[in-house]
Write a structure and sequence with these properties.
392 residues; 35% helix; 11% strand
């Protein structure tokens, strides 16, 4: 199907000198892409191609990437997400030909390892955005290599790269332009790595350390001391964080707009009070499974400047202490667009109905199990008849 489209467009390509091939997205045709199709595309695109998306093209192999790099030297944006047959053998393409590459997505290319990072370091000095999420073979050595050669990196996503720990994170301090870093579920990262990172990359605006389970209040203190420009902070599933750490955090990070605190089970209403006092621009807050949060903390949050004017999304799933009293507090949040209340056992149907009546524009996500059917009265006659029998 796509091959026919390529041949039909050849006349257009000739008429316009190839300029109509500056952007190619093959996601719709992902199951049809063969090496022959790749050859047809590269011969027509040539130097005009700037943006190429092969997302989900699982049949694409290293030789296809080499073909694009050989014939299309000026590619700036390359999306290889879910191209699971891409292997370290594609490193030659990045070393020699993709010198103009600025944006690269290799997420879920599970065969990619440190040798690809070495190639990117050697051949892609203009790289600004790199996604290596779920590339589980990438280790500290790969991060060190990137930090040496890709000094223009601004966005780096390393979600579930579980071989990366403090040595890799410390090396990233050489990337002074880094503004977004995701270390989600990099379980080897400790406070030492984050301390070095925050002192070396003080322009961070978005940081995710959710699932880095060794982190403590020291991490929060260092972020508060060194990252005043931070806008987004994800801290889900960090059990060692306490109210003391959040107090130190928010005093220095007054520009926070989004916080994910899911399963920070040690925090209490005290942290919510501090957030209410020091985060006037907060738009999104996740408190799901924070089981020590109560109506009192939410009263402070909803009554604050951020709560009344800025807050757009609030997730409170499985906050077992909150009751219908919180419903009255939520009504104060004039800008609130969505609230999640799944498994809040003390929130009643009546409370949800009241909230919807006061804020009909608000998207409320809640669930109540169906009523238990009434118990049938005991009938001794039926007990003498097998369920398999037909009663005439």
């Amino acid at each position: 199907r796509f091959q026919n489209a390529v041949y039909l467009s050849s006349g257009i390509n000739a008429e316009y000198g190839g300029s109509n091939w500056s952007h190619v997205d093959l996601f719709e045709f992902q199951t049809d892409i063969t090496q022959h199709v790749v050859s047809s595309i590269t011969s027509r695109c040539g130097p005009f191609l700037r943006t190429l998306s092969l997302k989900g093209c699982k049949s694409i192999e290293d030789k296809a990437i080499l073909a694009f790099s050989t014939h299309c030297h000026y590619i700036e944006v390359l999306n290889l997400n879910l191209c699971t047959n891409i292997s370290p053998r594609c490193d030659r393409a990045f070393t020699s030909h993709f010198t103009n590459l600025k944006w690269l997505d290799l997420s879920s290319c599970t065969l990619v390892d440190d040798s690809v990072c070495n190639a990117l370091s050697a051949g892609c000095p203009q790289l600004q955005h790199l996604d290596l999420s779920w590339c589980t073979l990438v280790s500290n050595n790969g991060a060190v290599a990137l930090a040496k050669g890709c000094l223009n990196l601004q966005h780096l996503l390393l979600r579930y790269c579980k071989l990366i720990g403090d040595p890799g994170v410390k090396a990233l301090t050489q990337c002074k332009k880094l503004s977004l870093l995701s270390l989600m579920n990099c379980e080897e990262v400790t406070d030492a790595g984050i301390v070095a990172l925050t002192r070396g990359c003080m322009e961070l605006r978005c940081l995710s350390v959710s699932g880095c389970t060794q982190l403590t209040d020291l991490t929060l203190t260092e972020i508060g001391n060194n990252c005043p420009s931070l806008r987004t902070l994800e801290l889900a599933k960090l059990l060692y964080l306490s109210d003391r750490g959040f107090k130190n955090l928010v005093k220095g990070c007054n520009s926070l707009e989004k916080m994910d605190l899911e399963e920070c089970q040690s925090i209490t209403d005290s942290s919510l009070i501090q957030i209410s006092l020091h985060c006037p621009y907060l738009q999104s807050l996740t408190l799901s499974n924070c089981e020590r949060i109560s109506d009192e903390g939410l009263r402070y949050l909803c009554g604050s400047y951020a709560g009344q004017t800025q807050l757009r999304e609030l997730e409170l799933d499985n906050c077992k202490l909150i009751t219908d009293a919180t419903i009255d507090h939520l009504v104060q949040c004039r800008g609130l667009q969505r609230v999640d209340l799944y498994d809040c056992l003390r929130i009643s149907r009546g409370g949800i109905k009241h909230l919807k009546s006061r804020r009909p524009d608000l998207s409320v996500h809640a669930y109540f199990p169906p009523d238990t059917p009434p118990v049938m009265q005991h009938d001794p006659v039926h007990n003498r008849v097998c369920r398999c029998c037909t009663i005439l």
